[in-house]
Specification:
Shape: globular
Number of strands: 0
Distance between the termini: 30 Å
Largest sheet: none
Structural class: mainly alpha
Number of helices: 9
Order of helices and strands: HHHHHHHHH
Helix content: 55-70%
Strand content: under 5%
Amino acid sequence: MSDGLENARLSRVEREDCPPEFLEAYDEVIRSRGRTSMPNVFALLANSPGALAAVTPVGAHVRYGTKFDDALREYVILTVAQELRCSYEWGHHWEFAIKVGAPEEMLKKVGTPAIEAEPGLVGLATTYARLVTRNEEVADDMVAALKQALGNDGFVDMTIMIGYYGMLARFINTMRLQLEEGSTAPPFNV
């Protein structure tokens, strides 16, 4: 049975190995993600307990503390995962997207021109996610449209969400973390 850690460059840090001053942060990751144990990505991140304590509240905010529609949030995260070829993030968020009711036909468009051609916020947000992830120029009219649709706070939250999942994907890829057995990840879209 694969736990996704066979080729990982770091080992998991379990709760009993976490310094006492960071136990509250460790426990908060488990609680805020609705889990009973620490997900692999955060158990590897806990090799630097200070990084775990600093980074994970940002993730909790952009995942659970924004006004984004659940499916829209997952389309954006999946766009980042596909752009950075992060199979772990792609697989987990594909599963989350299905759970929140995102239609599979829409998920099959993520990372393609077809999703960016979708009307309204879906096309706009996924295009923005691709541009920001690639560090490409974002036109002023796109920023204005995002601010109009999301408000200034939503625009900031969207930008931070893209950056957070980009940072996490780069960490995951560098650590060679793989999906756990039982998780399914369809191939990246073409």
